[in-house]
Automatic annotation (TrEMBL):
Domain Mechanosensitive ion channel MscS span(s) in chain numbering: 169-231
Occurrences of domain Mechanosensitive ion channel MscS C-terminal (ranges): 245-329
Species for this entry: Bathymodiolus azoricus thioautotrophic gill symbiont
Name under which the protein is recorded: Small-conductance mechanosensitive channel
Domain Mechanosensitive ion channel transmembrane helices 2/3: residue ranges: 128-168
Length: 340
C-alpha cells in the first residue's frame, strides 16, 4: 500500500494495467485447462458454454482496469467525472454479450448433436429468446437513465400500429414463417412441390424460404405464399406407387383373364411390394387399338433409384407373362377390309 501511495497517478494506472494483464493471462490459462478437461467428457455442451463465456470474462477483467483507472484519474481530468456516471452500465452489456454467446453455443450444440430435433424450430426459438433478452436489457437501461417505460411502451404500441400498416407484407411473411415452424408442413431438406415450383428446401428464414430446384437454381419464396397455396411434400411419402396401363391385341382377348390373374399373383408374391396397401390388376378398357388392363400397387421403398429398379423388374415380368400366354403387347394398328 505504501508503494502505491508513493506512485504518481499515471504510474498507478500503469501498475493496474500490469496487474490486469497478469490476471488476464491467469484467467486464460484457467479457462484453457477447464476446456481441456471438458473435452475429455462425452457431453460437448459444457465445451460450448466454456468457449462462449471466455471472451466476456476477459472483457470484464479489462473493464475492471478501465473503471479503476478512471477513478484514479478523475481528479486529474475533469471530463472523466462525467464519463464515470455512464460506464456503470458497461458490465450489463458485457454480461448480455456473454449470455447471447452462451445461447448461441447451445444452439450450435443442438444443431450439431440432436439429429432428431427440428433444426428450423431450434433456430426460431433461439432467435426469439435473443430478441426478448435484448428488448429487456434496452428497456432496463432506459429505466436506468430516467425514461418512463410505460411511455415507451405506449409510443411503441402506436408506432407498431403505424409500422404494421406500412410493413404489412413483411409482417405477413414473418408470421407466415412462424406458422411454418409451428405447423411444420415441411422442414429443411424436404422435397416439396406445388403448381408453381418444385425442389428441396434449403432454408426457412424469417421472411422467405429458399428452395433449390432440381436444375440447381435457387428460388426465394415469401413465407406468406405458403398460406394460400397447397404444398405437397413427396419426401414424406410412405410408399411409392406403380400405376401402369398395359394393352394387348384384340386377337388376344381369350388370354386376358389368365394374364390378369397371373400378373396379380406375381405382385402378391413380390417381396418389394407393400401387401398392406391397395393392389389391383383389372381389365378395364376397350381402347382404339388395344385391350387395356391396369396394374396398381405400392412399393415398400421410397428411394427413387430402388423404386425404378423394382418397377422395371415388374414391367419386364408382365411382358414375360403376356408372351407366355401367346399374346402380344398392342401398338396402334389399322385393319383394311377389301370387298370384291
Amino acid at each position: 500500500m505504501d508503494l502505491l501511495q508513493n506512485l504518481t497517478l499515471y504510474q498507478t494506472v500503469g501498475a493496474l494495467f500490469a496487474v490486469t494483464f497478469i490476471v488476464h493471462i491467469i484467467t486464460g490459462a484457467i479457462l484453457k485447462q477447464l476446456i481441456a478437461q471438458t473435452n475429455k467428457t462425452k457431453n460437448q455442451l459444457d465445451d460450448c458454454l466454456l468457449k462462449s463465456i471466455s471472451a466476456p470474462l476477459k472483457a470484464l477483467v479489462w473493464f475492471a482496469w478501465f473503471y479503476l483507472s478512471i477513478n484514479v484519474l478523475k481528479g486529474e481530468i475533469a471530463l472523466l467525472v462525467q464519463v464515470i456516471n455512464y460506464i456503470d452500465i458497461i458490465p450489463i452489456f458485457i454480461i448480455t454479450w456473454g449470455v447471447l454467446r452462451m445461447i448461441s453455443g447451445i444452439e450450435s450444440y443442438l444443431l450439431k448433436h440432436k439429429n432428431n430435433a427440428n433444426k428450423d424450430s431450434i433456430r426460431l426459438i433461439i432467435r426469439l429468446i435473443k430478441i426478448l433478452i435484448i428488448a429487456s436489457i434496452v428497456l432496463g437501461i432506459a429505466q436506468y437513465f430516467g425514461f418512463s417505460i410505460s411511455s415507451l411502451l405506449t409510443f411503441g404500441g402506436v408506432g407498431g400500429i403505424v409500422m404494421g400498416f406500412a410493413a404489412k407484407d413483411m409482417l405477413s411473411n414473418i408470421f407466415g414463417g412462424l406458422m411454418l415452424q409451428m405447423d411444420r408442413p415441411f422442414s429443411t431438406g424436404d422435397w416439396i412441390r406445388s403448381s408453381q415450383f418444385e425442389g428441396t428446401v434449403e432454408k426457412i428464414g424469417w421472411r422467405m424460404t429458399r428452395i433449390r430446384t432440381f436444375s440447381k437454381n435457387p428460388i426465394y419464396i415469401p413465407n406468406s405464399i405458403f398460406a394460400s397455396i397447397p404444398i405437397e411434400t413427396p419426401s414424406r411419402m410412405t410408399n411409392r406407387r406403380i400405376n401402369e396401363t398395359i394393352g394387348i391385341r384384340y386377337n388376344d382377348i381369350a388370354q386376358m383373364s389368365d394374364i390378369v390373374t397371373e400378373v396379380e399373383a406375381m405382385l402378391k408374391t413380390n417381396k418389394d411390394i407393400e401387401q398392406s396397401q391397395a393392389l389391383r390388376v383389372f381389365f378395364n378398357y376397350f381402347n382404339a387399338s388395344s385391350l387395356d388392363f391396369n396394374v396398381y400397387a405400392f412399393t415398400k421403398t421410397v428411394n427413387k433409384n430402388e423404386y425404378q429398379q423394382i418397377k422395371q423388374k415388374i414391367l419386364l415380368s408382365v411382358a414375360d407373362i403376356i408372351a407366355k400366354h401367346g399374346a402380344e403387347i398392342a401398338y396402334p394398328t389399322q385393319t383394311l377390309h377389301i370387298q370384291k
